Amino acid sequence: MLGTEIRGRLEELADHKTAEILRWFFKTGPGEYGEGDMFRGIRVPVLRKLCREFSHASVDDAVGLLASGWHEDRLLGLLMLVERYKQPDEAQRTLIFNHYCSRTDRINNWDLVDLSCPRIVGCHLQERDRLPLYRFALSESLWERRIAIVSTFHFIRAGDFGDTLAIAEKLMGDAEDLIHKATGWMLREVGKRDVDVLEGFLSEYYRGMPRTMLRYAIEKLPEPRRQDWLKGRI
User: Fold this and answer.
1) Rounded distance, CA 146 to CA 132, Å?
2) CB atoms near residue 150 (< 10 Å)
3) Distances (CA, A) of 52 to 13, 49, 55, 79, 89
4) Among the residues of the chain, which ranges form H helices?
5) What one-character DSSP code corresponds to residue 70?
6) How confident is the model at residue 233, as a pLDDT?
7) Which residues share a beta bridge with 70?
């Protein structure tokens, strides 16, 4: 019954003009990474408000939303899972992690990944074996590979950079621009906390690094130093 109520609220909040913009922004055309995805036209702040409105929803209610063909429904389900994961119930946290890893086919755009995986996958693996991330890094799925690197944001915030660097090395030859951007972003976050670690990694790999990845990684460096990396003067 609650699932029906949630979907009713989502239908009420739909905006066709916004949906048109979002379909373009998230590349839903033929051959694009979000091909065929459907948008109701609901922006993230509204979905966060809806998440609070249904704070009493269960994990099953949230997981049920992942089955929806509507992008915003899936995003709301993920935001709900993030909130449920914050509760100090280890059995529930493990259940959420397992649901997440088994439904990656429904976590199929960069916003869905970025707004959820550090707070679920990264958090869950903080004190556990991180092998699942390395499996994702080798996946044929673009979104699983993005989950692999972006989940390490949780470790970075704790001053733990090893897995970010190891996974970044594995993704160096990735063909997808969205992986270049995500990996460069995570390397930049490492550099914001320890520039020597970032530059040590760059000194070994920057000549073979995709240009987009390098630009993202060095974005916060002082301009003269940034130019040295870009022009190969290091």
Assistant:
1) 13
2) 25
3) 15, 5, 5, 10, 19
4) 2-13, 16-25, 44-53, 59-65, 71-85, 90-102, 110-114, 117, 123-125, 131-137, 142-150, 153-157, 162-170, 177-193, 195-205, 211-217, 223-230
5) B
6) 86
7) 38
Q: Model pTM?
A: 0.95
User: Per residue in 161-219, pLDDT tens?
Assistant: 999 999 999 999 999 999 999 999 999 999 999 999 999 999 999 999 999 999 999 99
Sorted by sequence, the CB contacts under 8 Å of residue 197 that are 6+ apart come out as: 161, 165, 190, 191
Contacts of 66 (CB under 8 A, 6+ apart): 74, 77, 78, 103, 106, 107
Cα separation of 17 and 4, whole Å? 25
Contacts of residue 93, Cβ cutoff 8 Å, sequence gap at least 6: 85, 87, 124
Amino acid in position 207? R
Produce one character per residue of 19-50: b if its CB has 16 or more CB atoms within 10 Å, e if not: beebbeebebeeeebbeebebbbbeeebbeeb
